[in-house]
Design brief:
The protein has six helices and 18 strands. It is α+β, with helices and mostly antiparallel strands. The strands form four sheets. Strands 10, 11, 13, 14, 16, 17 and 18 form a seven-stranded mixed β-sheet that branches. Strands 1, 2, 5, 6, 7 and 8 form a six-stranded mixed β-sheet that branches. The chain has a three-stranded antiparallel β-sheet with strand order 9-12-15, with no helix packed on it. Helix 1 runs parallel beside helix 4 and helix 5 crosses helix 6. The chain is flat. The termini are far apart.
Length: about 400
């Protein structure tokens, strides 16, 4: 029995050596916003895409062709032979136990790699689909432009890469999607999208501000591809949404930890196990309630308003700005048999300045501090993972 265990262990090690494990994705720390002095230096900023459509980088198992199940069985069965030399002639002698174990283990590994290869191919086809281009630099630059367009005392213009820059431009904000990386380890796949924002002063072409932004999410290969790749399509939509939000926030929204927000008890939403972060409701237009505490004693309560956003698994379904109270009844009927996630952020109005606080998240947003990574993309995309949620029952009224 001891010899058999050693043989089986050696066989597994030989087969598993064929699977190249993905390297862990690098850690990214939240960066400080652009300084107020630098922000005030430019009154006219042109936003333009700074690169081509994102390239696809496949790490780990994907750096070479994957085994199919049949190839894994054949490879495993081939290991069930012991080589020797008789009279100078190489001879391969079959060992039945090793051959059977090899075919079983080889088939399992081959099946996993075949699933990985299929996942890679499906995502690659989606990325190069001429009809969508949701992850292009052009679409990301467009989102960033509309987010910073309302910044006080800032004139902005969106230009395509081939359009000439006006002579009175004070700075150019280049926005580019750099890469989409798929990292596979065992049955899990992490998808990471990186983007870069570079602010160039027009007078001397100097890059005065540059940061890389990251959005990633994880799930099993099976969950990524379930329901016609629903989790991947949700990821693609929210990756761009998250990256645009982060770029706008770091450059112009002045995000700062000057307030604390938590969901509060609502007459319409019943908490699940007394947890105010998750609940159920029979009401199609429920009231959302939150507690707000301004941590900065110099901020007067009258100077603070609130923005609210509501999302389904694929998109934002409603947003409102400038709320005075800490409660809000949804003014549209939400579909039943659906889970929604929502959040609010405080907005400080001080003279001509507008200063935004962080969106309300569970555990102070710690789950999103590495670029937005969640626990399981099939449960909720990383951008929404730690937002409060409520499920509208099918028999809503």
């Amino acid at each position: 029995m001891h010899v058999n265990r050693l043989i089986t262990t050696a066989l597994l090690a030989t087969l598993l050596a064929e699977v190249v494990s993905a390297q862990g994705t690098p850690g990214f720390e939240l960066q400080e916003p652009m300084s107020p002095e630098l922000r005030a230096e430019f009154g006219f900023v042109v936003v333009r895409p700074g690169g081509a459509v994102a390239s696809e980088h496949l790490t780990g198992t994907y750096n070479k062709d994957s085994l199919t199940m049949a190839e894994g069985v054949a490879k495993g069965g081939g290991l069930g032979r012991v080589g020797t030399d008789i009279g100078g002639i190489p001879v391969s002698m079959p060992v039945p136990i090793l051959g059977e174990l090899g075919m079983i283990v080889g088939g399992l590994i081959g099946a996993q790699q075949e699933a990985m290869q299929d996942f890679r191919d499906r995502l690659a086809r989606d990325l190069v689909d001429a009809g969508g281009k949701p992850m292009s630099s052009e679409s990301l630059a467009d989102d960033v432009f509309w987010l910073i367009r309302g910044v006080p005392s800032l004139k902005t213009r969106l230009l395509l890469a081939e359009q000439p820059i006006p002579s009175n431009t004070e700075a150019v904000l280049f926005v580019s999607v750099d890469s989409i990386q798929i990292s596979v380890k065992e049955s899990d796949a992490v998808i990471m999208t990186t983007a870069t924002a570079t602010l160039m002063r027009s007078s001397d072409s100097r890059h005065v501000f540059e940061q890389q932004f990251v959005y990633e999410d994880r799930d099993t290969l099976e969950n990524w591809t379930r329901d016609d790749d629903a989790a991947w399509h949700s990821y693609a939509a929210y990756a761009r949404h998250y990256l645009a939000r982060e770029i706008a926030a770091r450059l112009y929204e002045r995000v700062g930890p000057w307030s604390s927000l938590t969901p509060a008890k609502s007459r319409d939403i019943k908490p699940i196990k007394k947890n105010l972060w998750a609940g159920t409701t029979k009401v199609a237009m429920p009231e959302l309630v939150w507690n707000a505490e301004v941590l900065d004693p110099t901020v007067p309560a009258t100077a603070v308003t609130y923005d609210i956003e509501i999302y389904d698994p694929l998109q934002m379904v409603y947003a409102e700005r400038g709320l005075q109270a800490t409660s809000y009844r949804v003014p549209i009927e939400l579909d039943g048999c659906q889970t929604y996630r929502w959040s609010v952020r405080p907005v400080l109005h001080y003279g001509n300045e507008v200063r935004y606080g962080e969106w309300m998240r569970a555990d102070d947003g710690k789950a999103t501090q590495r670029g937005g990574i969640g626990q399981r993309a099939s449960e909720a995309t990383a951008y929404l993972y730690d937002f409060p949620s409520f499920s509208v029952k099918c028999g809503r009224r």
